Each structure stands twice: as structure tokens, then as C-alpha cells.
Sequence to fold (211 residues):
Amino acid sequence: RCKESTGRVVMWKEMLIKNSFTLEASFAGSSIVNKPCHFNIQDYEKFGQSICESLRQYLDILSDTKRMDSIYLDITKCVFRKLGKDKVPPALLPLIYAGNDSTTSIISISDCLQALTQCHKTIYEQDASTSEDSDSDPEGGELPELPYQKELEAKEAEAELRKKQIKKKRSEKAIEERIQKLTRKRELHILNDFNEIKPKLNKIKIIDIQP
Fold:
């Protein structure tokens, strides 16, 4: 299936939004209730309240390092369990399955990422094989790997260059205004000096001295 026009894919490509959430809605077609029903204002208000509460919990977790480490560790273990014992490196098996002492410890997010990196290829292949489970799922390998970090650095460099250019223009403009101000000041001084000596020049009589 083509997912190029789905909301998550478009938002990722155009705005590089990583965390995108889809609200699935059914218009009088739900199989949960016996008869067709429509959403009303109260339903949408409850949706909004639930979304806000979820976002609040999400932000609280982001600000708590210990909870983040615990969540990443649980996610890492869950991923390894889905891969199966035969696809997980032997050194990481004791972390998931109790019974043996592990020589590797995972206590932080960086440890989780390092452990997942060791199985990156296997995880990617498994995700690609199940990419058609959801039309709006951007995790299935159909998204191209965008050079996010490079693009971000390029934008930052461009912004920095623009700031320097603006600063240079302002500096040049300030110098030009300073020169104009000094020129006007010098002309004013000359005019004032001339006005001061002009009466004296009018009093000077030219004497014709004959031999």
C-alpha cells in the first residue's frame, strides 16, 4: 500500500514531526454498540480532555530521568522478547530471561540505545515485514531515512550566516550614518566660523597705496 499521502508521513516529510498521533473516528459505523450512533459535543470534549491528560503525562515523563530510563528499559526488553532468543545477541539474553548472570548492564537510555543498535538490522527487517498492518503507520520502512541532523545543522548554519549578514549590514549602515553626521557637523562648524568673521570682513577697507 502507498502511504505517501497519509497524515503521519506528510507531517514527517514536511515538518520532521516524530511523534504523530492519529484519532480514529467512526461515523455511525461502530460494531461495538447495537445501533448506529453519532458523536456529540460531550464526546469530543472527552476526547480533548483525554488527549490533554495524555500529553501532561507524556511531558511529566520527559522531565523525569528515572522514569524515562525505566520506560526505555521496558521497551528494550519488549523489543528483544518479540525478536526471540535466536535473534538476540547471547550477551543480552540474561537481561531479558532470568536465570543467568549478565555481564552487560542496562541502566540508562544510552545503554538501551546501544543494546538496540546491536540488533538494528534484525529489528528493521522485522518492521519491514509487518509494515502493512496500519495505513497510517510510518514505522514500516516506507519512509526514507531523512538526514534530519544534517538538515538541522544546515538550517542552523544558514540562520547563523543570515545573522552575520544582518549584523554586517547594520554595522555598515551605522558607519555610513556616522560619516554623514560628522560631515554635517563639520559643514555646520565651517558655516558658523564664516558667519563670525563675515562682519569683520565687511569693516575692512581696501587702501590703495601709491608709490
Q: What stands out?
A: Residues 55 and 104 are 34 Å apart (CA to CA). The radius of gyration is 37 Å.
